[in-house]
């Protein structure tokens, strides 16, 4: 399954490390990564991929939500098909 | 990875209040008909609770996985006047209670279909159902009712128009808030996912999933970026935005239908406002360039908006249906409330607006002493607009018992409030009391 993970918040040391570490623990492979500033906030987007037989969506979502509250970052995960449906003909 | 597009999509949901307003499962009750009312109701309860047992669960899953809020999960059923007609019960309040119980068990927000279609005349079940409306809607919280009193093919049933004025008054006498759950239609549609007017039409499949989209905030935000540009650009911008919003509706509907193993019916391309700031159709009209909604030019701006939403949405989904257009309910739109409170918008202007958008005089509070005949007159006017223009129109007015113009009626919580609006005090009683039927318009004879 593929999903887009967005991380938004104040820039701080080790954001990329913390998020990628967590994703590795959750057995999510990062296939693409990009970062930018949006309205002055650090904004990182990752494309994650994992085997549904190994880990389910809700477990990953829970893991990322926990990381979000520990670090004060806003972390969202959404399945990738949605973006294609809205933005592509 | 298209980062700009991903960010835009996320922003549409988080900042511009884009959501799926409703996933509505339509369920036919024809196979529940029984001459024994008690048996019929048991069959209805069993069919509803088995057919829709996973509706809320699946909607919550989709919400979580795709990050799109799905605000309402609803059911619509075959008009109860048809289902109850075979039984010998004196009234149909017990049917409404069965609907309520099923909705409660399933955890759905609302259930529509306590309805009758009487555009040309009454059958036995219609008479009993309409007489049961005040008690049924006051004794239930989630049941919604509707009565279709006119159609372009049949004309307007003025006996029904007269009776519905009285029913609205009876309902308000018990509790004005319950008037929210009753709509009087002309040209009612069979696949409407929105309440209070949803019912499962007789030409529909046994079960179907219909989706209603939202998104006034997204359209407003897009228009903020083209301030001062020509009207052509405004129309083009609305079309592009409506396309994206509708794609989301199509996508969510497909996923829901697949997971529930029920055919996907239609996407209703409606801009449905809520009382929260930034989720208002009135604010879109003001963004187009009106000092306040209600100003001269309002009808033209709304016509442009309504048409552009349809043009953008039609290509984005497989089947369009329901009401599909902009909704202008006063109490559910913070911009409309503001305009009414500042005397910038009156009922006559709202009536004109209903000629060019979906539905009609919606969620409008009128003084408590407004007569039944005056309400019937309002229903007749709206029905005439619908019947002559071959479109759906509706009336959902709330006589605010004990209140006068300038006071407010509170609907509680998310439903917001409505300022009581002045109504023309000249009586239409003699016309309403004539009864009979306004014949179908000449342009309905197309065969």
UniProtKB/TrEMBL annotation, chain A:
Q: Which residues form the ACT domain?
A: 4-78
Which InterPro entries does this UniProt record tie to the protein? ACT-like_dom_sf, ACT_dom, UPF0237/GcvR_regulator, UPF0237_ACT
Q: Which CDD domains match?
A: ACT_1ZPV (cd04872)
> Which family would the database say this protein is a member of?
Belongs to the UPF0237 family.
Under what name is this protein listed? UPF0237 protein HMPREF0519_1901
Species of origin reads Lentilactobacillus hilgardii (strain ATCC 8290 / DSM 20176 / CCUG 30140 / JCM 1155 / KCTC 3500 / NBRC 15886 / NCIMB 8040 / NRRL B-1843 / 9)
TrEMBL record, chain B:
Superkingdom of this protein's organism: Bacteria
What Pfam families does this protein's entry cite?
Answer: DUF711
Q: Which SUPFAM superfamilies does the UniProt entry name for this protein?
A: PFL-like glycyl radical enzymes (SSF51998)
Q: Which NCBIfam families match?
A: PRK05313.1
What the record says about family reads: Belongs to the UPF0210 family.
Its subunit composition reads: Homodimer.
Name by which UniProt lists this protein = UPF0210 protein HMPREF0519_1902
Q: Which organism is it from?
A: Lentilactobacillus hilgardii (strain ATCC 8290 / DSM 20176 / CCUG 30140 / JCM 1155 / KCTC 3500 / NBRC 15886 / NCIMB 8040 / NRRL B-1843 / 9)
